[in-house]
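Re: that chain you flagged

S.,

Sorry for the slow reply, it's been a week of failed gels. I finally had a moment to sit down with the sequence you sent. For the record, here it is as I used it:
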Amino acid sequence: MSHAPTAPAVAGSDAADDHWHPQQVAALAVVAVCGVLVSLTQSILIPVLGAIQRDLGSSTTGTEWLLTSTLLVAAVSVPVLGRLGDLYGKRRMLLVATLALVIGSIICALADSIEVMIAGRIVTGVSSAAIPLGISLIGQVLPATRAGSGIALVSATLGIGGALGLPLAALVAEHSDYHVLFWICAVGGAAAFAGIWFALTEVARFGHGRMDFPGAVLLAAALVSLLLPLAEATTWGWGDPRTIGLLVLAAVLLAVFVLVERRVASPLVDLVVNARPSLLLTNIASLCIGFALFASFIGTASYVQAPSSTGYGFGSSVLASGLAMLPSGLAMLALSPVSALLSARLGPKITLAIGAAVVALGFLGRIVFTGSFTEIVIWTTVAGAGTGIAYAAMPSLILRAAPADELAAANGLNTLARSVGSSLASAIGGTLLAAQTISLGGFDLPSLGAYRTLFGICAGAALLGGLIALVIPTADRDRARQDAVAAGAH
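Prediction finished late last night. Pasting the structure tokens below so you have them in one place:
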């Protein structure tokens, strides 16, 4: 961080250059690996929560806070670090986010109580800002001919890491101690930090003004008030006074946030810009796709682990259920460059709509085909492939529509929209699976009808996202703004 030139960060980045340079490859690889590690931290705990609870002697509620705390901190950190990146340097904030991953993982690896581990997960939550920061950075680091594919790859890591985290955690849980997972994240994060330090230099900063700390506090309070009841809805119940009260408080705080931000000279979130249809509709579509992706996670592992007597399950092991998601993650990785090519030829909004349609097809397949483990893997992979195409197209829409001085903040808001979608999926999916059950051996398990309803909702959400994508405006001024960003960066 001792050097922060405003010149282009990678040598040989002429827009007409069709060859990858070693520096460009290194920059993209470092940012992509960082994105995978960050998204990995959000899914690796799911298969080992039971082992952690037994080892640390914690309650079920306390153990669930390992996930909830990270979610809440991530929701706040993403827009705040995005704005700080626009103002003070994206590389600098990317280093901060990666350092949080390292420190938080080490705290968790050394934790001997649930309270200490939750503290580590709180620190880890800050690292979630690395993905939108990386997307914004790659958009300026790579030449125009390569930026699309680079951005697509980094964006897809949000789903890739999540899909890879389940089988990795299951494998470690079966053959080793869960602390190994945290050490993997710590070592990987340290390597990513070193790579960012040596492979990237600071890019041109277009941001101006100062950090809006009152706005950050307001937004943080609003997001916590919104996401906390969604995370706890299955436990508290939708009619619980805590759930209703926090959702009402969230609505009030968001309204106050809008009023305050419209009067601030240097707002945390430029509401005028982000209310433009090109950005607003992109974020709504992203929320829909984020909903479908997370529902795939919660609707696959428990589904294949259920006993065959349920009429749908296969009695699979934790490892087998994690491996069921592996092809989905690989499909996301493989199709990110395809998404970039489609965006270049058809436009990112058409590509987003195509991805959403493929996601819907995958969930429709999950409703119809239930006879074998292979069928579940195939149609989950189809949904993952569509998610990879859709996720990779979203930043291109942001890049076209957002002003250069708010690019990281705009990408952060888009990532936040995906996270809110995932939170809604967790809340609605958890409630649905708990409401429609069958009794086996004294235990209540979700019924096949519950899963089919969930998959139907996911297919509908994906189709809605695709329809919204089709009406996103692609005004000439958006293309002109993108050309201006590329010219200024290169």
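What I noticed first: The radius of gyration is 21 Å.

Talk soon,
D.
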